[in-house]
Amino acid sequence: MRRLHGPLSDCLRRAGLLLPAMLLLGFAAPLTPRPAFADILKGHDFLVAGDASRTRVVMQLDDDATLNWFLLRSPHRLVVDLPQMSFAIVPADLKPRGLVTNVRYGKISDDHSRMIFAVKGPFTVDDISVARNESSPGYRLVIDIVASSEAAFEAALAKQAGGAPRAAAATDDPVDVKPESPGKPFTIVIDPGHGGIDGGAEGVSGAIEKNITLAFGQELRDALEKAGKYRVYMTRDDDRFLPLDERVRVARQDNADLFISIHADTISIKGIRGATVYTVSDKASDAAAAAVASRENLSDDLAGVEITEANHDVADILVDLIRRETHSFSIRFARSLVGQLSSTIEMINHPHRFAGFRVLRAPDVPSVLVELGYLSNPKDEAELRDPKWRAKAVDSMCKAIAQFAAAKVRAGG
Fold this sequence. Notes:
It is built from 9 helices and 18 strands.
């Protein structure tokens, strides 16, 4: 196997448990032309799998190969140079998937071929390697890319600029890039649920969830910005549809310290009202939490977005990373948020619950989903439409965010 970075333990290699901030910037030695008498390298069975957080590219090769790679901006691209080869790629396999929006390939000289991957936003290269197949003849090219912040991508470009890609020396160790300077503002991404074709729940008096969540998200953003000590982004600031994975990608791209998804659900049980704070878990805390997660996770289906599960390893990696690196922070914030909201607005019994929300699966961003209330309850619906009630809830959330941000800074998070 030829790799462009140093060895990691087998378990980490299999699971892919690399911190997204660990940017692999090593390049292989210059490409070695194949002997004139050798057959041209053949590439076939091209596959892209993953989502808007993490994507894998695989292509089968009939022989071993040395490769080089480098990054380009405007748009964000990954360029991979290979020995001269023939590509047997089915056009349908080139359609956009996950982070990859476009693929181009072809001959660039008598000795070399090139593949160019256009990527949706900034990214880090987790792994590029050519490995021998374990159970079939030949080799495989594997490329793993992970959604990242613009600062990390620019740091990679700066590192790359130290030498031409073809002449760059190989390095054995990944580089821990820490592009953010001390004193970086605490960054919050607010995610107003639903939008566009996906209206979400509808209240007993006609309130639409997507409008309630957008109004509340904008008011929360304005209050946080007024405090003058946060950097605040919105996944959407108007009536547009965003796939769930795209919302996760926005949080990671903006290098968020906290992700808050805002919702207002309905329920068939009469008399149930009040706010709920959810964190992610493989197993739901109760049947009601499981039902809420199932409804929210259907957002993409309702809007006609294709949901692929071709690479189950990707989902497993994300869940494991959440547990290991961010889950405790999410729970800590959820508890603080429940404490603040309980003093000003109605909460359901056991207001901190957990379930398998797809939108909370950013591997490196503490995340919560807040159901502000039930639009199926007339009292909750009336309060959700009341600017004074929303102002009280916003104030409580701002206090919880301030507590969490201060504790995270003290902890060096």
